[in-house]
Design brief:
By secondary structure, the protein is an alpha+beta fold. About 15% of the residues lie in helices and about 30% in strands.
């Protein structure tokens, strides 16, 4: 049985429609943002594909909207991490047990963005992550692509067509890119994606708010596009920063947005039976 939800976003003045269809396996495309969860006291991880980054620059539902199209991730979080996942404390550390973050990359120049643009969560609204030379961001982009490729083609959950469950020790799984995770070289990572220090994660019980940073090649701080709030029932709410609305001169106005429409809708087609 197909279950359809609709997400509407505006990209440079052109309406983008997204229809989520029931599908048996997960998918990933360059430019997608992945939302990951892990726990300090369990061996499971959970990853959700939020779709392309472009719609989070400008949307048609005012300054805030709920990402209804990703399905019932609250039910998944309860099943994986316990009914108290949003307030759960690790007794060994005395801090929040369930951690979450999101990451994405554009590995090719698109929508006015340079190659190796990184989209990352940041627990700190006052201190956006710094920009870096292309070579450094290319290394991060390679890791994000490896995570996305590992995410793709896995069995989706019963509650979301865009989510899957992983083991915390999976190579190229979400947890492997966070502090303590084991990389392909067998070494434990000390910072998120070998780049974000401090971490791009937050403990849900400590703060359920994460800010979306756009990291471009260059110097100086990155740009804060908006913020995500994770409600105790699993609802994910995005609030856009006013300054994040793209300028037509940068994003080539409607022409590239129309390309985004086609690409975005093709990615959301139902899987063939």
């Amino acid at each position: 049985m197909n279950k359809t939800n609709t997400f509407l976003a505006i990209a440079s003045g052109v309406l983008i429609g997204t229809t989520a269809f029931a599908q048996s396996t997960t998918s990933y495309s360059d430019g997608d943002i992945l939302l990951g969860f892990r726990a300090t006291d369990t061996s499971s991880a959970y990853v959700v594909n939020l779709g392309q980054a472009l719609p989070f620059y400008s949307n048609s539902q005012g300054n805030s909207f709920v990402l209804n199209y990703i399905g019932g991730i609250g039910n998944d979080l309860s099943n994986i991490f316990g009914a108290n996942w949003a307030t759960r404390i690790d007794p060994a550390t005395g801090t929040g047990a369930v951690l979450f973050s999101f990451i994405g990359t554009s590995r090719t120049p698109s929508f006015g963005l340079p190659q190796y643009t990184i989209f990352s969560s940041n627990p700190d609204s006052a201190n956006p992550f710094g920009r870096s030379p292309v070579a450094a961001l290319a290394l991060v982009s390679n890791l994000v692509a490896a995570e996305g490729n590992f995410f793709a083609g896995n069995l989706r959950t019963a509650n979301s067509a865009y989510a899957t469950i992983q083991n915390a020790n999976d190579t190229n799984g979400y947890a492997s890119f966070q502090p303590g995770g084991i990389g392909p070289d067998g070494q434990a990572r000390t910072i998120s994606y070998d780049y974000f220090d401090p971490t791009n994660e937050s403990a849900v019980a400590i703060s359920s708010v994460l800010f979306l940073n756009e990291i471009l090649p260059g110097s100086g701080p990155s740009r804060q596009l908006g913020s995500f709030v994770l409600a105790a029932n699993g609802a994910l709410i995005y609030t856009q920063s006013i300054s994040a609305i793209p300028e037509p001169s940068t994003y080539l106005a409607g022409g590239l947005a129309l390309v985004a429409v086609g690409s975005f809708l093709r990615r959301r087609r139902p899987a063939q039976a």
